[in-house]
Sequence to fold (311 residues):
Amino acid sequence: MYSFILGNESIKMALSVSAGGRVWRKFFKTFNFGPNSALKRFPTCTANGRLYSSSSDNVLVSKDEKSGIATVRMNNPPVNSLNSAMLVSLRSCFEELENDKSCRALILTSQKPKVFCAGLDILEIYRKSPDYVAQFWEKLQDMWLSLYGSRLVTMAAINGHSPAGGCLLSLACDYRIMAEGKFTIGLNETQLDLVAPFWLRQTMVDVIGYRQAEMALMIGALYTSNKALQLGLVDKLAPIEDVQTVAEEEVKNWLKIPDQARAITKMASRKPLLDELRKRKQEDIQTFRDETTRESVQISIQQYLEKLKAK
Ligand SMILES: CCCCCCC/C=C/C(=O)SCCNC(=O)CCNC(=O)[C@H](O)C(C)(C)COP(=O)(O)OP(=O)(O)OC[C@H]1O[C@@H](n2cnc3c(N)ncnc32)[C@H](O)[C@@H]1OP(=O)(O)O
Fold:
């Protein structure tokens, strides 16, 4: 049995007597597990409830107490775009589940089938002050750190389109199941005159390999589900109505592996990138702020928005 004590720059583990106690303690010391900043205490998860740590309903969580599998449903109509409030709610939710000792896995999906997540809310970076976009970017970094650095089995049940920030969320998970059909996924940032940050580019390289990632990122490619499967950008396809069930079955397979060995292995491979972002956080914020507030980029964003509205 274990519980978490959260503090600045690291998560330390308070251990009650257990055979694996020493191993866990060493593990958490070594890997600086989880998100990188001070964490608040969150209320305990409740089964089949609304989000417990947010006043809004933009993220819905239900947890099966028996299996320890939580389902996190993004609920920000019409397209689950990631605005500041969504980023804060997602981070709170991931951290809360991380700290819930009875939780072993999370499935990330959309409450509204056909769109998993439309990526960053473009309006959050259009004609906003440099300070505003800097704060917005830090919220994205923190949300990503909490998901990518999670001890839990994390599974993306991609039940619809998943461009840009939607793909970022999926790539931060351990496994991706996507709906068959006409849906698309990819990092299309260059189409908006934006450049994906190093940590996002690296996850793409890690998942689909250098050559394919380099090409996909340069041209801002959005791939159909079939092509995404072929590239390894997603791991499995399912009919849209079965995505959740298939994800639950897959998670159950993953949970046959002992948590400790699985989580240590995951952290061993993710630690370098987590540490790199923690180290270069301010530099990354500055790059984003300077790039997105450039007039030429603002004009591209405006044109992209007009294209979206005119669709
Ligand atoms: C140094 C810089 C580093 C930058 C790196 C940043 C990393 C991440 C970047 C991003 O995520 S940028 C966002 C990129 N996202 C997109 O390109 C997706 C755009 N949206 C779509 O392609 C489609 O909306 C959809 C997701 C395929 C869904 O299509 P659907 O037909 O179901 O809905 P729509 O009619 O298109 O949209 C409804 C409504 O929502 C508005 N909207 C859509 N996406 C966004 C968005 N990302 N942000 C804000 N608003 C969005 C769309 O304009 C429609 O609005 P209304 O016309 O109803 O007012």
